[in-house]
Design brief:
alpha/beta, six-stranded mixed β-sheet, 4 helices, 6 strands
């Protein structure tokens, strides 16, 4: 099973594909691209292109499930409208399930259950990796 951890930031989604190796340890695929950007959220063509890019990414990398790090819906730290459009587009990818994980659950997982980060993990992919690893190990 391959899971794609997602962190949505501004007008892009950051993607980290993880799986369990033969020893049941979490491994991450080192891929290009690791981000998909939504150019213009008011353009139907750009929305369709973003969804097509997600579909292609999921097919090429045999993704079973997307796991999205949730964002606040209101308040000072609320996610923007564009980020919620991106979240919806991820949920529309054919053949993939979508799940959500809270930032609190990720922080607890990183402190108590994670044995380490993959070598050469870019800082901007840390939360996406955590989301995927959490889903693999916590079910």
């Amino acid at each position: 099973m391959r899971i794609c951890g997602c962190e949505i930031s501004a007008k892009e989604v950051r993607l980290a594909v993880v799986y369990l190796n033969g020893d049941r340890d979490v491994e991450m695929l080192h891929l290009k691209p690791t981000r998909i950007e939504l150019e213009d959220d008011t353009s139907e063509a750009d929305l369709r292109s973003f969804l097509a890019d997600l579909q292609t990414f999921s097919r090429e990398h045999e993704i079973d499930t997307f796991v999205i790090k949730t964002r606040a819906k209101k308040g000072r730290m609320a996610g923007g409208a564009v980020s919620f459009k991106i979240e919806t587009l991820i949920q529309l990818v054919d053949g993939c399930d979508t799940r959500f994980v809270s930032p609190v659950a990720l922080a607890n997982f990183a402190k108590k259950d994670l044995e380490g980060y993959p070598e050469k993990l870019p800082v901007y992919l840390k939360n996406a990796f955590l989301a995927g690893a959490h889903a693999l190990t916590k079910g």
